[in-house]
Amino acid sequence: MSGRLGIRTGHLYDLLRSRFPADLERPALLVPDAAVVRYADLDRESARYANLIVGLGVEPGDRVAVQVDKSAQAFVLYLACLRAGAAYLPMNVAYKDAEVAHIVGDARPRLMVCRPQNEADLAPLCEAAGISALRTLDAAGDGSFADEAEDCGILFETRARGAQDLAALLYTSGTTGKPKGVMLTQENLASNAQVLFETWGWREDDVLLHALPLFHTHGLFVASHCALMGGTAMIFLPKFDIKQILEGLRTATVFMGVPTFYTRLLATPEFEAKSCENIRLFVSGSAPLLEQTFSEFQQRTGQHILERYGMTETGMNTSNPLDGARKLGTVGLPLDGVDVRIVDEQGEPVAADAVGQLEVKGPNVFAGYWEQPDKTADDFTDDGYFRTGDLGRLDEDGYVVLVGRSKDLVISGGYNVYPKEVELLIDEIPGVEESAVIGLPDADLGESVTAVVIADAAGPAPDADDIIARLKGSLAGYKVPKRVVFCDMLPRNVMGKVQKNLLRAELSEPSG
Predict the structure, then answer these.
(1) CB of 386 closer than 8 Å to CB of 313
(2) Which residue, 312, 222, 315, 317, is CA-closest to 1?
């Protein structure tokens, strides 16, 4: 099943710049307690930043690693990387040294920009990775990078890049436990921006309430690209803060969030239909939206949340319609230009409404994994479809229904947690024989990370609190288990594979 839109793509920044409003004095970013950032500012400051990036030796195709707090200047840095022809490599600020060391060692960026408080710790990692330049940028937009950019010119001729050239490199973990780089091209991002802009009917008077992080596909590409394509404003919040969200809802027209945003709104007594009467579109993604949340939100506000489906490797693949039925329990129809099919384990199409492996193909699908041709080949079919690892079916109207994940991915608070990465660290702890990490239902986070541990019979059993404390030193907080459960053995199938579905079923049952 596929869409119909003819996509015109080229350089991503050229596309976005062509959609800036004729009046560049119009607001682009509305940041609380800060001056309004106009489109003229985006154009001028991204030129300064691009001049500095080039001056620091970054050539077209080089990677620029960025691990900074969300700010207007951080967003400008992203645009500057596009203008300079660099591949933007964002990293979660919660990543620990070991996580950062693997990524920069693998990607070998030419430049890294970090928070000032992390500079001393990152300097030896950068030296070991051969990074020639390390600069800083703080939450207020100050730091050595911003200081040096002040002396740079405000004119910059955007470097030419082809549709298949790299625009961004985002790292995601997997079954091996080691993060791998997802290569996103100019065409991947440009095509998705065009399709979403049209699919969601972006208007020239729209105002986007942006509370998502900038190191993730959802906030960096999906949300911000739509606003730039419309030449419209974003209320640019540093994070999800319920007071600022309620205030922003009064003037915004579009809100994009993860399911946790919606459960927290519903948990706020002050949130009611009147709070969001100006909003024309609520969008949810990055994790499954519970039917209870969808229904309760509709009852409270009279509005139907639009759920869509995507992943780091593909951007967005499907969306419930802007006009038409937003069907509960589905992630909508394939986007224009995207082919979606459901196949069995032999790669053959399944019967109507049957469950199978979900595969996608289109200009949005990534070019492959960074320097991992074998892994890339494994995840693509001979006819060019990407094996998403998700299980799904098509209903009678062609809407995609996700029914499970074949790769045991845990999504907690909208962030992906790959069990193998956590299990490898737990298994290294003295006193642990083996572990299995699963996600259990959580009303706020969607899923909470849970570790099931078998203690080594030969030594003293480890303490649950000690396991969690050790992991906090090595993993971003959202990956650390909220709970550790000890057991005598893990359930396995005849091939010896741990049956995590049985663990989830057992541990999800109320105790009593």
Answers:
(1) yes
(2) 317
Residue bearing tokens 């000890």? 486
Residues in Cβ contact with 444 at an 8 Å cutoff, skipping those fewer than 6 apart: 260, 263, 264, 267, 413
Bridge pairing between strands 446-455 and 483-486:
parallel
Q: Which pLDDT belongs to residue 490? A: 86
Contact between 279 and 303 (Cβ < 8 Å): yes
Q: Domains along the chain? A: 12-239 (3.40.50.980), 334-405 (2.30.38.10), 410-508 (3.30.300.30)
Average pLDDT, the chain: 92
Q: What is the pLDDT of residue 2?
A: 46
Tell me the pLDDT tens digit for each residue of 337-378.
999 999 998 999 999 888 899 999 999 999 999 999 999 999
Q: In 3D, which of 140, 28, 169 has the Cα closest to residue 74? A: 140
Residue 94 CB coordination number (10 Å):
16
Dump pLDDT digits (tens) for 476-505: 999 999 999 999 888 876 556 688 888 988
Structure confidence by residue, pLDDT tens digits, 166-207: 999 999 876 566 889 999 999 999 999 999 999 999 999 999
Quote the pTM value. Answer: 0.86
Dihedral of alpha carbons 17, 22, 23, 28, sign: negative
Quote the CA–CA distance of 10 and 298 in Å, as a whole number: 40
Q: Per residue in 139-152, is it b (16+ CB within 10 Å) or e — as a string?
A: bebebebbebbeeb
User: Of 265, 261, 278, 264, nearest to 219 (Cα)?
Assistant: 261
Task: State how far the alpha carbon of 269 is from the alpha carbons of 211, 255, 264, in Å.
Answer: 20, 19, 10
Reading phi first (left if > 0) and then psi (alpha if -120 to 50, else beta), residue 139 is in alpha
Residue appearing with tokens 């489109």: 39
Give the residue from 404, 417, 427, 350 showing the smallest Cα distance to 173: 417
DSSP state at residue 299? H
Is-contact 173 179, C-beta < 8 A? yes
